[in-house]
Fold this sequence. Notes:
The complex is a heterodimer.
Chain A: E1 18-19, E2 26-27, H1 41-49, E3 56-61, H2 67-80, E4 85-89, H3 92-106, E5 123-130, E6 137-143, H4 147-155, H5 161-169, E7 172-178, H6 179-184, H7 188-203, E8 220-225, H8 231-235, H9 237-244, H10 246-255, E9 259-263, E10 265-274, E11 280-290, H11 294-301
Parallel strand pairs in A: 3-6, 3-7, 7-8, 8-9
Antiparallel strand pairs in A: 1-2, 4-5, 5-6, 10-11
Helix pairs in contact in A: 2-3, 7-10, 9-10
Chain B: H1 29-32, H2 45-58, E1 59-62, E2 65-69, E3 87-91, E4 94-97, H3 103-111, H4 126-129, H5 163-173, E5 176-177, H6 180-188, E6 243-249, E7 254-255, E8 258-261, E9 266-270, E10 287-291, E11 299-301, E12 303-306
Parallel strand pairs in B: 6-11
Antiparallel strand pairs in B: 1-4, 2-3, 4-12, 5-12, 6-9, 7-8, 9-10
Bound molecules: guanosine-5'-triphosphate and magnesium ion.
Amino acid sequence: MSDQVMTSTRFLNEGTKFECVCCGQVYFDHTGHCNHCQAPTSISRVVAERDGKPKFLCVLGASGAGKTVYLGMLLDMLTKGTKGLQGLPNNSFSVSVQQQTMNALERRRFPEKTATESDTWKWIHCEVNYRKKKDNFFDIITPDFAGEAISEELENPGQYPAVGHIIRRSQAVLVLVDSIRVRDLGRDEDFFALKLLSYLESVRKPTGKNAAKRKTDLPVAIVLTKSDACPEAMQDPAEFARHNLPGVDQYLNRHFNDYQFFAVSAVGASVSLVDAHGRTEQIPMHIEPLGIVEPFEWIIKR
Amino acid sequence: MSFLSKLKRKGNSPAEPRGKRRDSEPRTVASVCYARHLTDPDASDYEITKAWSQVEKEMVIVAEGSVGLASLSPDDLDQLDSRENSQLVHVDAFYVDRFAVTNDQFQVFVDDGGYENFDLWPESVLPMVLNFVDTTGCPGPAFWANGRTPQGRGHHPVVGVSWYEAYAFARWCGKRLVNCAEWQHAATWADSGSGRHRYPWGDSFNANFANTWEAKREDTVPVDQYADGATANGIHQMVGNVWEWTDTLFEAQMSKGLRIVTDGPMAEIRGGAYDTYFTSQATCRFRSAQAIAARHPNLGFRLCLTASDLCQPNDSYAFCDQGE
Lengths: 302, 324
Ligand SMILES: Nc1nc2c(ncn2[C@@H]2O[C@H](COP(=O)(O)OP(=O)(O)OP(=O)(O)O)[C@@H](O)[C@H]2O)c(=O)[nH]1
Ligand SMILES: [Mg+2]
């Protein structure tokens, strides 16, 4: 990590006002969480102290889509440095998402499901530098959302304000979709992702002249997770999506300018552990990340 | 000749400059299938002697002994390095390949009609053999094209082969797949004096000694690279580069009402690969598994011979003089 290139910073004195990085609320108090969206003020402060506008992305998806695994793995790989990208976690929550996920995976367990209560979410802030150039950096700023909360927010906008605020401010969005469920369990995943895209579009509607005719500029990476167990998705993610996520494919085509399909997986093989009551838990036999950084690379390169 | 004098140290033989394969001559059926003569009662002394000299070049003897296999019981699966619950297994003396089977060697099998020779395949999988094709639909490993080894990858381990293809290749060339206890014994035996290391070279990981995720190469390398990570007696890449199929089925286990269920038959795989993320999962002891029909880019195999099964020439040829 010694070769990390830091962006230049200025120091905010106690009592200086600054904006919440997520919802824009103005603060004087430099500790705790934003009382509107629950974002830790420490992240907002780091961003406010830094020169230049923050550029960041967020990770969304249904419950069980693989967000926590993906984020933990991505952060860990970026921190170790990969493909010319070097990440520096900027708060202890990022480190704990990374640590809990990696500890679990190394011990052949998947991390626990994320709780729905927004005040328990771990917010991630990782500053990522590309090819060691000073101004070539990007942030990952996102809470590790619970899929159920995203679902609630889609049904009743405003219920979980952080979701809308983060989307409004993000330069790009990663939408995670479980490829196994897509393949095996009908159209449910397609409908959920479709709702999510239409929510994204409503939040990021083009404005100004000819707005109604223009497509949304927000770059969207559709990330098909668990492709270790769905090789069809890994082989050709776009083709897989065309046949198995028809709603998403058509919606993106019609409403978004800039999108791409990816397939990722964290594990090399998995088995199921079944208890006496028939409850099943997936066990990752060994960890071999595949395609994890590519969606992020695609975003950072634009 | 003493038993120990038959054990070759890394690179002390004129036949093998340190860590390098001697592979300049093109591979032929005879050069890959030399071991057939060692179990053939009709083989001539000349053939047996020649085969033994090939064994001496390409394989290493591993003396009999016992090895502690990590428990695969559901409640031990999360142990990072379980020595306590290991199960002691006896292993007879065997000869093991110094290197994983290469694309060049596998090419000879393909050219010799290995995929069409139904005697080599278990009868139950014959319909499946038709699906074991490359990117162009020709019989061969999954990532080849037109039945040919990808350019420049002749010395890389063959990958994209299911357990069945590894099994058929082994039968064809007169050897067999290593079982999981043998694999671990081969990886650790040369260090047994100092107490069974985690890696072939010692207990701490070193990214210069094995091609795992830490090496950031994201691909296989030729089988003779990372020679510094070889076992003391010259078995290369037991850790890293490619996982290796073993001849051990991954058995669903039970404990305290917990049971492991798999989607279909799986075989045990060992050693980790170029994309293995945790160094604790690319060790001599770590046991994992893969669906036996899987044809992955990070999964190859290495072969062995049971020492007691092998014919000796009638004249007292040095290599075969085991009776001391
Ligand atoms: N085979 C396979 N399974 C995975 C992978 N990633 C995640 N899973 C499975 O998907 C489950 C859910 O993953 P999480 O990362 O917890 O999902 P999430 O999107 O955070 O879910 P919520 O916390 O409920 O929103 C895990 O418990 C695993 O069973 C993967 O790469 N391969
Ligand atoms: Mg989660």
